[in-house]
Amino acid sequence: MTVPREQRRVFGEVAHAYEGVRPGYPAEILGLITAYVGRAVRTVVESGAGTGKGTALLRGLGVPLTCVEPDPAMAALLARRFDGDDLVSVVVSRFEDWIPPSDGVDLLASAQAWHWVDHTRRTHLAAEALAPGGVLAVFGHDYGFVDADLRAQLNLVYLEYAPEIADQPGRPVHSRHPGAFRPEELRGSPWFTDAEERRVMTVVRYDTARYLTLLSTFSPHRMLPEQQRSRLHRALADRVDAHGGVLEQKLTTWLWLARRT
Question: Hey, which of 29, 75, 81, 94 would disulfide with 70, CB 3.0 to 4.6 Å?
Fold first, then answer.
């Protein structure tokens, strides 16, 4: 009997590629978090730490950091990356199953992973994990294109080879991600106050091969049947090659902050 793959657990299949091509986070994000917190942070927990893209940023706080990661392959790579770092500990667990310390933590962060936590419980779970006055920081990249014409050309390829994950009129981009996070969860919560939203813009260049590797780390691509994914990626590669073999991704790094009441 074949066990169905969970979309939230496919990243371990390409953990090394994920670490190699996914962009990290600009230092400005950490500055915005610390300015919002407004006091010394003593303890930090990261939900869905993956291979440590967000961890590397949060490590800059110089305080104990607990990384909660459900995928064993991702957690193993994360543990190797921070091997010997006494401030970083890795827990292989879903955030929903992790038991926070009784007195709570000062900062709970999640980088590109909060949408994988049960959307019916995550706000309450975050409140339970935080000490009074503690801060929740949710951040992640929104991938766009510098060249709008190339974006349109690539979307035509998606419409032909994988319409189920293409951008289509009337279909929000976040609809492809189960449990997509919405700021209203925090603004309307009785457990949080002072919700704020920030963003930082950067541009990252990818050649054709590296761009295909990046796509192979996105869960909607990983959930496609292998033959369909291969056809899609070959066609996308042809378009990028025809464009000169280089693509510029416009990254909007969103940051949502809220304080535990």
Answer: 94
Expressed as residue numbers, the domain containing 126 is: 7-260
Q: Report the side by side order of strands in the sheet with 44-47.
A: 88-92, 65-69, 44-47, 105-111, 130-145, 246-260, 192-207
Q: For residue 2, is it within any domain? A: no
Between these two residues, 235 and 219, which has the higher pLDDT value? 235
Read off the pLDDT band of 168 (50, 70, 90).
confident
DSSP-derived 3-state class of residue 99: coil
Q: What is the CATH number of the domain that holds 99?
A: 3.40.50.150
Residue 1 inside a domain? The answer is no
Residue pLDDT, tens place only, 240-256: 999 999 999 999 999 99
Cα 116 to Cα 185: distance, rounded to the nearest angstrom: 15
Structure tokens at 25: 């986070």
Helix (H) or strand (E) holding 109: strand 105-111
Structurally, the chain folds into a number of domains equal to 1
Question: Does the pLDDT value for residue 7 go beyond 90?
Answer: no
Strand positions, DSSP E, 21-104: 44-47, 65-69, 88-92
- In this prediction, residue 14 has a pLDDT band, given cuts at 50, 70 and 90, of confident
CB-based burial label for 110 (10 Å; 0-12, 13-18, 19+): buried
Report the Cα–Cα distance between both ends of the chain, in Å, rounded: 48
Helix 226-242 vs helix 148-161: angle between axes, to the nearest 10 degrees?
150
Q: Phi and psi dihedrals of 131, rounded to 5?
A: -70, 160
